[in-house]
Design a protein that fits this description.
The structure is a single chain. This protein is an alpha+beta fold. It has two domains: 3-68; 82-157. Helix content is 36%, strand content 21%. The protein is built from two helices and seven strands, in the order H-H-E-E-E-E-E-E-E. It has helices at residues 3-24, 28-68; strands at residues 86-92, 97-103, 111-117, 120-122, 128-132, 145-149, 156-157. A four-stranded antiparallel β-sheet has the order 4-5-6-7, with no helix packed on it. A three-stranded antiparallel β-sheet has the order 1-2-3, with no helix packed on it.
């Protein structure tokens, strides 16, 4: 016997019991009470089914959002920073540049890189920092990018441009 046939049989038994109640003892109060209980059970089943369907829908939306959302696709990997170091600059508004430092996430291990630059960013590998070589700027020497090691040493200018008048730090005037 399957679950469906058991369910059908139970439903038929209930119908017969209701018919028997109506024919043998026409107690309208008990029949009305039975109808109210039956209606409440049906309503509760519908509410339960609605809540279950809503829960499944929300779970599916969250799953699809995590799998196919912007964080799961095309997001750049966080650089593997040496020991979790944070790179930050102390901006000098008058000089229009920052002094750059590294520190641990808890604030310990503060290291002055002894570099003054307009901007700086970690290389993806986390072993070097790309900066603007502001110290080398002067007459006939336009702003160029440079690379330093994570500890601030080994400054290397990146001068692979054929036009020495090209200033990478300033927008051309129109």
């Amino acid at each position: 016997m399957t679950i469906d046939s058991r369910g059908r049989r139970a439903g038929e038994d209930f119908r017969r019991a209701i018919d028997d109640l109506g024919s043998s003892a026409p107690d309208r109060g008990s029949i009305a009470r039975f109808e109210r209980v039956r209606a409440r059970k049906q309503r509760n089943r519908r509410i339960g089914a609605t809540l279950l369907a809503t829960g499944v829908t929300v779970a599916a939306i969250v799953f699809v959002g995590r799998v196919f959302g912007p964080a799961g696709r095309g997001a750049p990997a966080a650089p593997n920073l040496p020991g979790g170091l944070i790179l930050y600059g102390d901006w000098d508004a008058q000089g229009q540049r920052a002094d750059w430092y590294t520190a641990q996430p808890d604030g310990s291990g503060l290291r002055d890189l002894k570099v003054s630059a307009t901007c700086a960013v970690w290389f993806p590998e986390g072993d070097r920092i790309l900066i603007t070589d502001d110290a080398a700027v002067g007459p006939g020497r336009p702003l160029r990018p440079a690379v330093i090691d994570a500890d601030g040493s080994n400054l290397r200018s990146l001068d692979a441009v054929s036009d020495p008048e090209l200033n990478r730090g300033v927008q051309p005037r129109r």
